[in-house]
């Protein structure tokens, strides 16, 4: 009886498909007869996530039926074969995106996407807080580090270009397996363009090796971002991929400010590189650290060329406007050879190394190896390295296109 029912159902379905093909009149089978029209699947353009009302099982990522976790949204993004040409946006509702809610850390983003949070500026407890720690095996393998030594919250890998906005990224609870292990809230191996976001958010522990952003051969461009950490705020180093093609694996850090704060506040060093990174910073404040900038990070690969360090008036196009005040040891410390640091139109510790009582240098001053002070230190062994401070050059007047007055004959 059941087989007969199934048989009737089968033929009914076949008949229905045939009727649909006849009605549409647009599809043909290989025999020239009308056939079914495959459904049109809209390209993936938007995914919604809500840790309070969403579900990873019954949700479909729409605004009406959001997913519960960012982990699920990223998995759907990675698996999609049909993405909108204008890009995909993941919208995160307010809430704590934690492992107890189903997140799996680090959350690895392998495809280009825009990730926007909600209610930024009210603190992690009231905004969108990506909050957790997981072993970063991708970075460990990349630099041949021992297992269980690298940990992160969010990771962007090539070929992804990821836009981040209005999010808090960090961890309210951090437990590392040993003193050799290190944590960074964001690991950038691909490319990240961020705005109005906080990294190293929620850190309440005094553990060493707890940092903000690690740029491992990738690019990190952050506008009006707040970065805090116990160890370094931003660390940038070249990775082995640099040997595969010119320019690959060389880190780039760009910090600007438009609306809101642009502050780097770490306990040891705000920005540290291995000497190969390109760094461009404008209108940012360096707070709390022993050093605002240092190039003493251990190298994963030999440096082929020194990075371009521009805190004002340099090759990166920085307009200056940075605040170098309050470092416990020195603001800019250069330890490697052939580093050229440009830092024009910035504010420094007053009455130190030629700065006036307003923290400005009325004239250009170039510090060379052997310089040591509250504002600039260049080690004696850093041959051919310089740090140039002072006012930016006045723009040259534009020649007038109209002829001048003609002298009358006497």
Task: Walk me through this protein's architecture.
The protein is mainly beta and 410 residues long. The protein has three helices and 30 strands. It has a domain at 89-307. It is 10% helix and 31% strand. A twelve-stranded mixed sheet has the order 1-2-5-9-12-15-18-21-24-27-30-28, with helices on one face. Strands 4, 7, 8, 11, 14, 17, 20, 23, 26 and 29 form a ten-stranded mixed sheet that branches. An eight-stranded parallel sheet has the order 3-6-10-13-16-19-22-25, with no helix packed on it. The longest helix is centred in the N-terminal third of the chain and has 23 residues, at 2-24. The chain is elongated, with a radius of gyration of 28 Å.
